[in-house]
Amino acid sequence: MNLCALRFRIICRSRISQCLVGSQQIRTFSNTLKRKGENVDIKEIFNDWKAKVSQDVDTSVDTITATPLQLFAISLRRKYIIDDLLATQVPPKGTQIPPNYHLAYFPPKAYENELESDGTESRYAPPPPFSRRMWAGGELSFSANNPLRVGQQVSMSTKCREVKVKPSPRGENLFLWLDKDISNELGWSMRETRCIVHRIHYDHSYVIQTEKFPGCLVHGPLTLTLLLDLMRDNLPNKTSFIKSFTHRAVSPLFVDEEFKVCGKRSESDDPISNSYELWAENKHGGVAMKATAILDNI
């Protein structure tokens, strides 16, 4: 079973504000300040910072209100928010939040002067020389019986699960895994991966002159949301739900360039396999993001 490919073009018209959340988060930080002849004790910097963030647990609260959900769906030009609920209708209390649409909640709360140079929060940012951050991927897991719904009071707990330093041709890369668990009044609801919006997504001068990209980048969680929408629009039956969704960013997508999202049932000898492979392709046919969805029945 192949899922129909959908084409998109992200148009950059104005600055995008931060409006994201998550759960298990993988970030990569590159050592871009190291120069030949510098005596930088990477190990000492890494160990000191790791000890600090490993003990840091952040808890934030929010209310699942109708308007952010509705605007999210309209921004993605969805005809329906979920099932037969039109995007032009205000979602009533009890409406289930589609996978990854919780990105409209738990916005970061920081003053502008507290942000890093790339526009992100500093709470989990490592010290120099790990100054250039990228999004590597992650995984989402959902409760079968306790989805997030409009009207609920929800909380999100963020903690560092793992930190690693790996070598690369451009210097050491620091990988940071953040577990973000979201709960409502009934208990645990989901665990998800997210990436905070930063300047490569909205500041054209910054992305060209500082980050040396040819144009603004499409935000990774937006691509992820489109892949999830493709999957939920093609669920085999009414009782199917997305149990988990593992994804990995492979290469960037750029604003004003067409791309498409695709999917198919995973190749398996098991005729009732509930695994699907999804991916996003750039305008040249290259893969920008890979994902695997595991389905289950309620």
TrEMBL record:
One of its GO terms (molecular function) is (3R)-hydroxyacyl-[acyl-carrier-protein] dehydratase activity. It comes from Funneliformis mosseae. Gene3D superfamilies: Hotdog Thioesterase (3.10.129.10). PANTHER family: HYDROXYACYL-THIOESTER DEHYDRATASE TYPE 2, MITOCHONDRIAL, N-TERMINAL OF MAOC-LIKE DEHYDRATASE DOMAIN-CONTAINING PROTEIN. This is 11678_t:CDS:1. InterPro entries: HotDog_dom_sf (IPR029069), Mitochondrial_HTD2 (IPR052741). GO terms for cellular component: mitochondrion.
